[in-house]
């Protein structure tokens, strides 16, 4: 039996991250697990030479953090609040994969779910892939999902699982 108690879903607020969150919600319901939704905001001070930025980084960073917090809060529905143990976490780093992995380690995640954009070739070579870096170094299994790629979580999947388990023969 697989014991999943802590699920980390990393989000960049894109389409593939929305699919990853759908999987995360369904896994959390199926396993009665905690769902951790994590977003990493780019750390402007660490990622750009200060001499090239003619503005107050602190103010801009605070605005980025506020916008990300608002987007993160909007991901959690009223149904999520009623039926799931959800934690929203906003992290700041210039290395999102490393930050996601550290968070997953800290919460003792049993699975990380992350969306992937499916970039390949030169784009992946130059930009790297957060999902790919997470997969390579994760302390637990990682499920990567794409938008509209062989989804196996249907809207009524939990009712099918519940019905099949209630129809199962009882032992003893």
Task: Note down, in words, how this protein is organized.
Helix 5 packs across helix 7. With 172 residues, the protein is of the alpha/beta class. The protein has eight helices and five strands. Helix 1 links the parallel strand 1 and strand 2 (34-42). The chain has a single domain (6-166), classed as HUPs (Rossmann fold, 3-Layer(aba) Sandwich), CATH 3.40.50. The protein is 48% helix and 19% strand. The protein has a five-stranded parallel β-sheet, with helices on both faces. The longest helix has 19 residues, at 57-75.
Task: Summarize it.
It contains 8 helices and 5 strands, in the order E-H-E-H-H-H-E-H-E-H-H-E-H. It is α/β, with parallel strands linked by helices.
CATH class: Alpha Beta
Spans with pLDDT under 50 lasting ≥5 residues?
Answer: 122-127, 157-172
Radius of gyration: 18 Å
- Percentage of residues in strands: 15-25%
Quaternary state reads: single chain
Task: Measure the end-to-end span.
Answer: 20 Å
**Biggest sheet details:** 5 strands, parallel
Spatial ordering of strands, largest sheet? 3-2-1-4-5
What is the H-and-E element order?
A: EHEHHHEHEHHEH
* CATH topological fold name: Rossmann fold
């Amino acid at each position: 039996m697989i014991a999943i108690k802590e699920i980390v879903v990393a989000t960049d607020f894109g389409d593939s991250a929305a699919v990853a969150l759908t999987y995360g919600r369904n896994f959390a319901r199926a396993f009665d697990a905690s769902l951790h939704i994590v977003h990493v905001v780019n750390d402007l001070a660490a990622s750009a030479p200060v001499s090239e930025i003619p503005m107050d980084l602190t103010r801009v960073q605070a605005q980025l953090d506020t916008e990300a917090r608002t987007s993160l809060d909007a991901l959690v529905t009223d149904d999520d609040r009623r039926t799931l143990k959800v934690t929203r976490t906003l992290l700041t780093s210039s290395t999102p994969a490393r930050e996601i992995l550290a968070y997953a380690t800290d919460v003792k995640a049993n699975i990380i779910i992350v969306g992937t954009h499916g970039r390949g070739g030169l784009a992946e070579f130059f930009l790297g892939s957060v999902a790919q870096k997470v997969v390579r170094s994760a302390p637990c299994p990682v499920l990567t999902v794409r938008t509209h790629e062989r989804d196996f979580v249907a809207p009524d999947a939990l009712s099918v699982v519940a019905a099949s388990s209630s129809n199962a023969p009882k032992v003893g």
